[in-house]
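Let us work through a complete example step by step.
Step 1: write down the sequence.
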Amino acid sequence: MITPVQAARTVRHAAVIARADLGVVYSWRTWLFGWLIRLLCQMVFYSLVGVLVGDPEYTVHIVLGAAVMTCVAETMLATASTCWDRHQGTMGLLTASPVEPGVFYFGRSLQWPASATATTSIALLAVPPFFGIAWEWHQVPVLVGIVVLTCLSTYCMTMLVASFALVLSEARNIISAISTTCVIAISGAMVPVEFWPVPVQWIAQALPVTHGLAAVRAVEAGAPASAVLASVGLMLLAAACWLSLALVSFRQVFARARTGNGALD
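Step 2: predict the structure and record it as tokens.
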């Protein structure tokens, strides 16, 4: 059983790789004028749907939904980056090492929730005022805090998806795209969760971002702090469940690889 100190050390060392990967993928110029602008344009595109419908309430609904969904689009990139070791020739070393695989991979792709925190915060704070949503100064730190927790919680969910993609690495981008689309569709971003059949609503409640989005909407509506905290609590509970499943899944994938029943090289 890995100790908290060992887990923290593993995550810290793996995060060094994550930071290096982010520096290879983006410079500050390409991140700012490429990736960020791309996500903001995507958000504006979806938000304009609400304007075209002509319903002010729906406009608010979809603007906030589109803003929070930028974190899903970005954190889901961890599905692909988890498979990079297979194509870089380092998977054999990881399989042979005594490291707890799920803990390592949690740190391995931390660049995505870190970047998602920045992009989602900017999208949530900068774009909605153009659609009639005015934030009070005291709401800003609360919103940023919710964004941080939403990105990390969604990342915990992504880790389970990534463990499957690690086995089916050739389909990693397809798995990521399908997962992202499904989460955006049923989490209440574009249409209310109640729009879907009851079984789909149950699935939506298992998604951390569903509750993160509910917390953001509660802040916008001026709901009591207890309502915001309740949504955040449900989000963290869902994240803990997803992360626990991800740790077990990674352990099983590596156990099969170490016994020769499921090669990862």
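Step 3: interpret the result. The chain is about 80% helix and 0% strand.
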